[in-house]
Amino acid sequence: MDLNLKGKTAIVTGGSTGLGAGICEVLAEEGMNVIVNYIVGEPQAKEFAQSLCDRFGTRCMAVYGDISKAEDIDAIFELAEKEYGHVDVLVNNAGIWPTTPIEEMPDEEWKKVIDINLNGTYLFSKRACMHFLKHGVEGHIVCISSKSGFAVTSPGHAHYATAKGALTLMVKAMAREFTAKGITINGVAPGMVRTPLNEDKLSQPHWLKYYQDRIPVGRISTAHEVAYAVAFLASEKARFIVGTIVDVTGGMLI
């Protein structure tokens, strides 16, 4: 199936490593220009973006920005307009996943997780919608949620689960307001994906078995398996899917 993404431009937040990098690779392979947003690791981010250009022949670039800061997001869209004219797709992927029981959790940790995982996604999505309307683009927004947004199955992630649960309703609320204006907003809910975010846990045999035993497919997913769902939702083929979080957990939500 041709997703007809060639020549279009996407922003992927937190796109230089892990799941974000997998999403960038799949979108670039589909022929998209990709703005790889990063907050740390500038040399690695720039090297990764250049590798996308070299491998897939698209125009990709690494752009710094803290998604919890509105001024950084505004700067990314200004640069995108200058370099590409407009953006067609936003993938809200950036997030953090600390593990701390509530009774031990500093208030600042709670605020940081909500700021990045929820507020940052809202700030970026709002500005993407304004950008699409300004340029007359029937754009797509894909938000990376989580199985934790539907069920809390492991301790220490109250802040993460709260942010992802709220994200599910935010996708629906934004879709309710912007679908009629030609903007399609959806999300995907990965389960366990092997990334640098969780490698410390998955490198321990007892944690690896703990998670694998909860996945009907019987293994940890790859970033590309989630990215394929993102690419579909970012395409015109998914235009009739609205305000939906697609389950890409390997059956964990059954």
Keywords:
seven-stranded parallel β-sheet; 45% helix; globular; 8 helices; alpha/beta; 254 residues; Rossmann fold
Summarize the structure in words.
It contains 8 helices and 7 strands; from the N terminus they run βαβαβαβαβαβαααβ. The radius of gyration is 17 Å and the shape is globular. Helix 1 packs parallel to helix 2, helix 3 runs parallel beside helix 4 and helix 4 packs parallel to helix 5 (158-178). It starts with 8 loop residues before the first strand and ends in a 6-residue tail after the last strand. Strands 3-2-1-4-5-6-7 form a 7-stranded parallel sheet, sandwiched between helices. It is α/β, with parallel strands linked by helices and 254 residues long. Strand 2 (33-38), helix 2 (42-56) and strand 3 (61-64) form a beta-alpha-beta unit. The chain has a single domain, classed as Rossmann fold (3-Layer(aba) Sandwich), CATH 3.40.50.
Overall morphology: globular
- The CATH superfamily title: NAD(P)-binding Rossmann-like Domain
Describe the strand arrangement of the main beta sheet, using strand numbers. Answer: 3-2-1-4-5-6-7
Question: For this structure, what is the CATH class?
Answer: Alpha Beta
**Euclidean distance between termini CA atoms:** 28 Å
Number of domains: 1
Number of strands: 7
Most strands sheet:
7 strands, parallel
- How much beta, percentage-wise? 5-15%
